[in-house]
Write a structure and sequence with these properties.
This protein is α/β, with parallel strands linked by helices. About 50% of the residues lie in helices and about 10% in strands. It is globular and about 90 Å long. The model has no long low-confidence stretch (mean pLDDT about 90).
Length: about 625
């Protein structure tokens, strides 16, 4: 084994020597890498539970959770008014739209362009200071890279030659009528430098109507990762061919008035579902009729999965056979409840979970639409490419929902065939099945498990005992209570959080769990920071439907070289109002953990990889010294 290791190392050093053929090239690279290690770490931006709220997401992504406004305040605190600072911020957030508006209002002049270009250069210069010149250059739009690079590195000299040079560049840009394009390029660079890496901690889909537009934007982002949420895995399951995931996805769109996303964005026709509903359901509102039709189909498919998977332990969710259609009631735990809707025209007494031939055709047609939608398939492939069940990044553990625990606070397990999975092993098993379901032949059991990940009692993406039937058919809200996994109580305990961190191989004294999924009711006094600062729940209710419940419109987290800050955001009006009145999202920033010593690249995961590269280069240097 030792001989093999030595041979492998020799081969690797030989390959490395082809890239660095002499000692001079080696020294140059070691100097460069050591310099990078001693730069401040880049800013990480955490967002969660976007739920199709495109405009709020778009604005927070553009303003980098207020980071850009903070830099503008720092640079221009004594030279610009509040209105002028907000004007420059709006221009950075929405350069094309703002310029178009200013052109229509005839508010642009050479003097304005000179002022704004100089302001943007100052902002870009400040943000670029924590990166190497090479990295900043690579982040620039290619057509303007040389010019921007020159402007960012102008220095005053004895004869002011550099300042004159700077002015001449600006004059030439104006003479060539290229100022708008240059402003757009500078704004893009500023936003690119403000956030080095983006984390999306689950739930892009459902509730809001524009998950597709969010995904389009994420696909253009320079550096990000995604931790799948239960609403994401639902659409991933539907795109993989799970009929029950298809039914629930359609049901959710009908509930939240997001039909246009299905039909306009993904080309998924609901025509056959609407025709079927018109035939069997007595509704003047066709959307309501379609919702009732797909709900019954869903509950039938739901029951069939539960019956063929006793290991899921979800028999209590079998409901259709308990319905008394004569009296319009249902019996749950020996208590009889009145139904608010007694329309079950396709449910038979003999076999309530059997689809009729027409229902089978409807759901198979919808499945075909989901699996053949090119745009949906592209979005789902992107979720697989950038996503995972969990992520360990710079000593932080990111996941959307929970790590299932039992009532004693120990890791709970799921029994699948002859194996039991818990903790990290459960997360990795779930990810393996999810990838196999889409890429590996669409096995029925894998597709069923996608549904379990969406709403299973011990699913790490859900962790609640869903009451879908009760919420749809019973007005008594006592029946709606969804028992949560013990994790959601124990996650307030620092000892439990440390146990979870160790399970995932994180032993650093300063480390955290970051998850979403459960909206923090700030208006009721709930806090996003738990377990003595070990855990952050950053679902503050991006979705408009949650604003009354949470009292805010979402949390985001910023982790830069100075420490961790959590941002509580107020509701966002619209992009149109932001452009007309330079409105920004009002955000309250709280420093939750300040670093005693500034965090440098050498303290990060990337730094560890760079140090490994330096070690390899030093080994090659020793080989060169032998000759």
């Amino acid at each position: 084994m030792k001989d093999k290791t030595n041979k492998d190392q020799e081969k690797y050093l030989h390959l490395l020597s082809q890239q660095y053929p002499n000692k001079q090239s080696l020294c140059r690279e070691v100097i460069n890498l050591n310099a990078i290690l001693n730069l401040p770490k880049g800013t990480e931006h955490f967002m969660s539970d976007l739920h199709g709220e495109f405009e709020a997401f778009y604005h927070i992504l553009n303003n980098c959770s207020g980071v850009i406004r903070e830099k503008v305040d720092l640079i221009f605190k004594d030279t610009l008014t509040e209105e002028e600072k907000q004007e420059i911020c709006t221009l950075i957030y929405y350069p094309e739209e703002k310029l178009k508006m200013l052109h229509l209002d005839n508010k642009l002049s050479d003097e304005w362009y000179r002022m704004v270009l100089n302001q943007l250069i100052k902002v870009a210069k400040l943000l670029s200071s924590k990166y190497t010149r090479s990295k900043v250059r690579k982040a620039m739009p290619e057509e303007f890279a040389y010019i921007i690079d020159e402007l960012l590195h102008v220095q005053k000299d004895e004869d002011n030659n550099q300042v004159v040079y700077h002015k001449k560049i600006i004059d030439t840009i104006l003479d060539l009528d290229y100022a708008d394009e240059f402003i757009i390029a500078l704004a893009a660079l500023i936003k690119r430098l403000a956030v080095d890496h983006l984390h999306i901690v689950g739930d892009i889909f459902d509730r809001g109507a524009y998950a597709d537009r969010i995904l389009d934007m994420l696909m253009q982002h320079h550096s990000l990762d995604i931790q799948w949420g239960n609403h994401d895995i639902l659409w991933m399951g539907a795109a993989s061919g799970s009929t029950i995931c298809v039914a629930i996805a359609v049901m959710n769109c009908l509930k939240s008035d997001s039909i246009s996303m299905l039909e306009r964005s993904y080309g998924i026709s609901l025509r056959k579902l609407f025709l079927f509903a018109e035939k069997y359901y007595d509704c003047t509102d066709m959307t309501k009729g379609a919702l009732r039709a797909i709900s019954v189909i869903m509950f039938k498919l739901h029951g069939r999965i539960i019956k063929r998977h006793p290991e899921y332990d979800m028999d209590d969710q079998l409901m259709l056979h308990r319905v008394d259609r004569v009296n319009g009631t249902v019996e749950i735990n020996t208590v009889t409840y009145k139904l608010n809707n007694n329309e079950f025209p396709t449910v038979s007494d003999e076999n309530p979970y059997e689809l009729t031939d027409e229902e089978g055709k409807v759901i198979l047609d919808l499945k075909k639409c989901f699996t053949e939608s090119e745009r949906l398939q592209a979005h789902v492939k992107f979720l697989y490419d950038k996503g995972s069940m969990y992520k360990v990044f710079n000593d932080n553990l990111l996941y959307h929902g929970c790590v299932p625990l039992d009532k004693s606070g120990n890791f709970d397990y799921i029994q699948i065939n002859d194996a039991a999975y818990k903790g990290k092993a459960l997360m990795e098993y779930a990810e393996g099945v999810a990838r196999r379901a889409f890429f590996g032949g669409h096995d029925k059991n894998d597709l069923d498990f996608m549904w379990y990940l969406w709403g299973g009692r011990k699913s790490p993406l859900c962790g609640r005992n869903l009451k879908t039937f009760e919420r749809a058919y019973i007005d008594d809200q006592d029946t709606w209570l969804e028992e949560a996994n013990p994790y959601y109580s124990f996650n307030n305990d620092e000892k439990t959080c440390n146990m979870i961190l160790r399970e995932f191989g994180i032993y650093a004294p300063v480390s955290h769990i970051i998850n979403g999924h459960t909206p923090v009711k700030a208006s009721s006094g709930e806090k996003p920071i738990r377990a003595n600062g070990k855990l952050f729940v950053i679902d503050g209710g991006f979705c408009k439907a949650y604003h009354k419940k949470t009292g805010i419109a979402g949390y985001t987290l910023i982790y830069n070289s100075h420490g961790l800050r959590i941002k509580a955001h107020q509701p966002f009006s619209s992009v149109a109002m932001a452009l007309m009145d330079n409105q920004d999202i009002e955000s309250e920033s709280s420093m939750v953990e300040e670093e005693k010593n500034r965090v440098m690249v050498k303290d990060t995961d990337i730094g560890k990889h760079i140090q490994e590269d330096i070690d390899d280069l030093n080994r090659l240097m020793k080989e060169y010294d032998k000759y």
